[in-house]
Amino acid sequence: MGQTKKPEITPEMTVLDIVSQYRETEVVFKQYDEPAGECICCNALFETLAAVAKKYDLNIQRMLDDLESVILFPN
Predict the structure, then answer these.
(1) Residue 5: predicted pLDDT
(2) Positive or negative CA dihedral for 13, 69, 45, 20?
């Protein structure tokens, strides 16, 4: 059996890159809207994930884990 390649989201990817490649991640960004105080997809679409984490004081590793979890284990 062939191995499936693990999807990889990196801190250098923009929000747009992530959502367009992995549509299911939009729900994760919506979960971060409240702690960020605004809609991340509306106001930071062209920013990298690292920049978003810094701008909104969010934990980058937790965001990466949350984003990858919906790709690897969709509901």
Answers:
(1) 58
(2) positive
The answer to whether residue 39 is domain-embedded is yes
Within a domain: 3: no
What confidence tens digit (pLDDT) does each residue in 36-57 have?
A: 999 999 999 999 999 999 999 9
Number of domains composing the chain = 1
Question: In DSSP terms, which residues pair with 14 in a beta bridge?
Answer: 48
Domain membership flag for residue 2: no
Which structural domain range is residue 64 located in?
A: 15-72
Beta carbons within 10 angstroms of residue 41's beta carbon = 17
Burial per residue of 29-38, b for 16 or more beta-carbon CB atoms within 10 angstroms, e otherwise: beebeeebee
pTM (predicted TM-score):
0.85
The three-class DSSP label of residue 14 is strand
Is 57 part of any domain?
A: yes
